[in-house]
From TrEMBL:
<keyword id="KW-0472">Membrane</keyword>
<dbReference type="InterPro" id="IPR024529">
    <property type="entry name" value="ECF_trnsprt_substrate-spec"/>
</dbReference>
<feature type="transmembrane region" description="Helical">
    <location>
        <begin position="55"/>
        <end position="75"/>
    </location>
</feature>
<dbReference type="GO" id="GO:0022857">
    <property type="term" value="F:transmembrane transporter activity"/>
</dbReference>
<feature type="transmembrane region" description="Helical">
    <location>
        <begin position="95"/>
        <end position="112"/>
    </location>
</feature>
<dbReference type="InterPro" id="IPR030949">
    <property type="entry name" value="ECF_S_folate_fam"/>
</dbReference>
<feature type="transmembrane region" description="Helical">
    <location>
        <begin position="24"/>
        <end position="43"/>
    </location>
</feature>
<keyword id="KW-0812">Transmembrane</keyword>
<protein>
    <submittedName>
        <fullName>Folate family ECF transporter S component</fullName>
    </submittedName>
</protein>
<dbReference type="Pfam" id="PF12822">
    <property type="entry name" value="ECF_trnsprt"/>
</dbReference>
<feature type="transmembrane region" description="Helical">
    <location>
        <begin position="156"/>
        <end position="177"/>
    </location>
</feature>
<keyword id="KW-1133">Transmembrane helix</keyword>
Length: 188
């Protein structure tokens, strides 16, 4: 475990995950899991906010695989999901791939080779939600011509409503999976 991601050893270990067949296989399974979770109906909350499930698989992949393999996973997952599902009727836009990459990267910085605490999960989810609001509104402004602040304000409210539920779900998932992943020697 590393106290922070700002050491050479952390990045050397993360880069070596690209050579680990077990981690590559795990990342591939997480891609399949993301697509399966996308088929599960979302849970509606208040004000149009809803809980979707893909973030769970992305965060677990980031936790196990780290920032280097995690970013490769994010690109593959986003592209495969788009082309297999048809993108929900929307055209392909690389900005959304960038958003997925950055989200997995942020999760990796908080979770990979780290002790998982609720605070760490909450802050990681908060930062990814802020990034999703900011970039999502930018991509919508580019694609649809809607004013950035209009899209961002509505999205920010929805993401704020979802945040505690997402953080609790993610922390619960991590604490449940930890013994299994340790036994499988996928995490320490």
């Amino acid at each position: 475990m590393y106290p922070h991601p700002f050491s050479v050893g952390y990045w050397r270990t993360a880069a070596n995950e690209l050579k680990d067949v077990r981690k590559l296989t795990f990342a591939a399974l997480c891609i399949a899991l993301c697509m399966a979770l996308a088929a599960i109906p979302s849970v509606p909350l208040w004000g149009g906010a809803k809980i979707t499930w893909g973030f769970l698989a992305r965060a677990v992949c980031a936790w196990v695989c780290g920032p280097v393999l995690g970013v490769v996973f994010a690109v593959a997952e986003d592209l495969l999901s788009f082309f297999i599902t048809g993108g929900g009727g929307y055209p392909f836009f690389p900005g959304y791939t960038l958003t997925t990459m950055l989200g997995v990267f942020v999760y990796s910085l908080f979770f990979y080779k780290s002790k998982i605490t609720f605070g760490r999960v909450f802050w990681a989810k908060l930062l990814t939600n802020i990034q999703n609001v900011t970039l999502g509104a930018l991509w919508m402004a580019i694609l649809s011509g809607k004013a950035w602040y209009v899209t961002a304000s509505g999205s920010a409210i929805k993401n704020l409503i979802c945040l505690p539920f997402q953080a609790i779900l993610l922390y619960t998932l991590f604490t449940t999976l930890r013994p299994v992943l340790v036994k499988a020697r996928l995490i320490e």
